[in-house]
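Holo model, zinc ion. Inputs:
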Amino acid sequence: MGKDKFIWCRNCDAVHHVTHFDKAPIYSFVAGEVEESPADDWRAFMKRHEGHRLEPLEPLTEKCFPDASVFDPMSVGYVEVTNGQDRILLRQVRKSIYEPLSFELVAGRLIDQGVTVGIQDNPIKKEMKYHFEWSAEPLQDDKIDLFIELYREVVKEIKPEEIELSGFSFDDANVSFGLPEPRVVELLMLKCVVYFRSNELLDIRKFIDSHIKGCDVMALVMRRQIILDRPAA
Ligand SMILES: [Zn+2]
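Output:
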């Protein structure tokens, strides 16, 4: 799990996120000049909560961003942590882009519903149309749809734990990509044999082989479904 650590003040219900940046200086512009002021958030927190009951918290889950991107600095994230006894939900917020992340205790929990495996329907369709645009006999739209339908059928049988990770999504923290095994491609080609002519089969095979690596359009999409369960306000 993540290496994040937190300190929880049980008297004030305040949470401090322990980071490498705790001792980093803060730079600010004062009258056109950069001014450096030493900051030690950890020390400041310890001083503010001197004599209070402090407990370390460790993450139980990965951070989760239910309705936004991990790469949006203003996204609200959640993480479940424990003091060794209780499960506690923390909400990560940033009041403005200029301020560091802060964490607060909130009621609720994260429910991990596991990983689903799918394919990239629309990107495949777009890429196939583009790919075959210049060929002597371009694949017609209905044939492209049929190919996507067959691929979806083959992928239905794959378990997430059997998939080799090949990349991560840039805009969704819960999405990663996987490389389909050679037997998956063979099975797909076997299904295609029934519906496509031999020259089409060659084209399709070439298309698959050149679009299967990393996050390319034939890569599998593995989506972790995490649901935020919060009591109604
Ligand atoms: Zn306190």
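Residues 9, 11-12, 14, 49, 52 surround zinc ion (CB under 6 Å). The two ends are 30 Å apart (CA to CA).
Archived with the compound record.
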